[in-house]
What does this fold into?
Amino acid sequence: MIDLRSDTVTQPTEAMRRAMAAAEVGDDVYGEDPTVNRLQEMAAAMLGKEAALFVPSGTMGNLIAVLVHCQRGDEVLVGEKSHTFLFEAGGISALGGVHSRQLPNRADGGLALEDIQRSIRPEDVHQPPTRLICLENTHNFCGGTVQSVEYMRQVGQLAQEYGLKVHLDGARLFNAATAIVEQQGGEVRKVARELVEPVDSLMFCLSKGLCAPVGSLLCGSEAFIREARRVRKMLGGGMRQVGVLAAAGLVALESMVDRLHEDHRRARRLAEGLRAIPGLVLDAMTPVTNMVFLSLATDVPWNAAQVAARLREKGVLVGKVGERRFRLVTHYWIDDAAVERTLQAFREVL
Ligand code: TLP
It folds into this structure.
């Protein structure tokens, strides 16, 4: 099957499987897993933060960050299309008692600075204190879109002015950095560091475009990570000989970051081919990174579920993200031939 539903479906590479089998491990709750420690040190150094913590999922990474930054009853500013607001089961409210204030997302996924500023609560016994701003880069449901280094700095500055913290859901941070490098040149790791320099904490995923089977890293100051470790334990995320997973993460950081531009190139080719097929309407800007968003034209007599079922019969899996809307995500296991076969399948079905 050609699986374009998400980059979360990526299987570990051969190199990852070998590294996992050979991993040196210890009890990570004691802080004694050498492979986990190496991964955490590498991630922190790569992103210019003091410390990092290996967590089981992006969802838990975001939740831990909010729980560390906020007390019960505090308010967090999030985008109305953010993953944290839409797809994390309301964990920050259910488990943290944190009040979310949803701001409109701009087309590129960012939150308008004026909206942020307008939403910051005054000191008033009637109102929850605004504590945290959450950003997402790349922004998944705005189209895998990218916010610039300049924008990240502006939000950081605003937060500082008002004494707020900033957390970044950087599940696909390296895709964002790659897209910026594609436009402006530079080095992916350096741009990633610049993107996160203004934020207090960030989470990025190993298990999406970077192809590792499981895991995300939460990065921030020493003090933030010390507290994050306690909250991770509270949530049941203290894993033991988890170096077997961290080993794949090390391979991901060492060898998968610099190839993300291939996924972006294939997403562009996929979009170009799909645009030429009558019955499909691609989003104007798509793709910005590794995601292609499209809808069925109004004269197509089937809905997304019916078209997806027909594509499945032809060996192609696509994501349904609305009654007549799809998301197709390129990743390591989608090669040029898979892109062409996908286009052929769409042509036949439509
Ligand atoms: N996103 C998944 C689904 O949950 C929608 C996907 O297929 O794209 N932040 C962002 C921006 C994400 O896209 C995701 C996963 C997460 C956080 C959560 O990561 P996990 O799945 O590791 O909890």
In short: The longest helix spans residues 260-275.
